[in-house]
Amino acid sequence: MYPIHMKQASRFSKLKQDGIKISMLTCYDYPSAKIQDACGIDIIFVGDSLATNVLGYAHQNDLNLQEMRHHVRAVARGIEHAYLLADIPYAASRDLTSIMDATEQLRQDGVDGVKVEGFKPDVFKALAASAVDGWAHLGFTPQLIEKPSMQAKDSESAEQLVAECIQLEAAGAVGIILELVPTAVAQRVSQSLNIPVIGIGAGLNCDGQVQVWHDLIGLETRVYKHAFRQCDAHAAQTQAVKAYIRLIADAASDEA
């Protein structure tokens, strides 16, 4: 049995009550964690997008728990102030027992919370009695839905989403991430809950936003509609490498 504890995420509900937006970014390594933490990001999130963005896998479901733990530990070393959240990888989410076992291992690596995809009230009841916060992920859930698509587009599915979010809060979830949900539906969910709702591709009326680090800084050449791109790191790094190659070539010419 995992020990009952005072939840670390209670401060985010307070931010919601005070109307202060919550910032969340994915992170996969120590130097990026140091940057994000020093800038004051509220939640640093080791997402299973690690699989495709860093490890070169074709799908995030290819990620295993030990790979996730390796990167969680690296990120944790770079954090002094931020809250550390991590995904439960698909391979470790077969049932309640495997999820709780993975949660305990990630707790040992330094996480404050874990994110679980899908409507799983039993999981959040168990997490509520554990030493780790439970965050839900509804709407488009990449582990469970093959192709990215807008969810809860009609009244029936919107009502179901709102009802599921209310049930997950009652079960003990401390926050909910909504992905690819219409703005009006996401806003309704936020207004229906006391816990924070973090959006990605769900409009700006949520209690906070989450972005993928690589999308924010432009480390990938693709640009998603919902990405808040702030710079072009891919171009900057490409230019740096080319300049280095020229430098080496020029130095060799000078010596000759």
From TrEMBL:
Keyword Chloroplast: no
Listed SUPFAM superfamilies: Phosphoenolpyruvate/pyruvate domain (SSF51621)
Pfam annotation, one family: Pantoate_transf
Annotated transmembrane regions: none
UniProt keyword terms in alphabetical order: Pantothenate biosynthesis, Transferase
InterPro entries cross-referenced by the UniProt entry: Pantoate_hydroxy_MeTrfase (IPR003700), Pyrv/PenolPyrv_kinase-like_dom (IPR015813), Pyrv_kinase-like_dom_sf (IPR040442)
Record flagged with keyword Transferase: yes
The protein's enzyme class: transferase
A molecular function (GO) term: 3-methyl-2-oxobutanoate hydroxymethyltransferase activity
Similarity annotation: Belongs to the PanB family.
Protein name: 3-methyl-2-oxobutanoate hydroxymethyltransferase
EC number: 2.1.2.11
Source domain of life: Bacteria
Assembly information from the UniProt record: Homodecamer; pentamer of dimers.
Gene3D superfamilies: Phosphoenolpyruvate-binding domains (3.20.20.60)
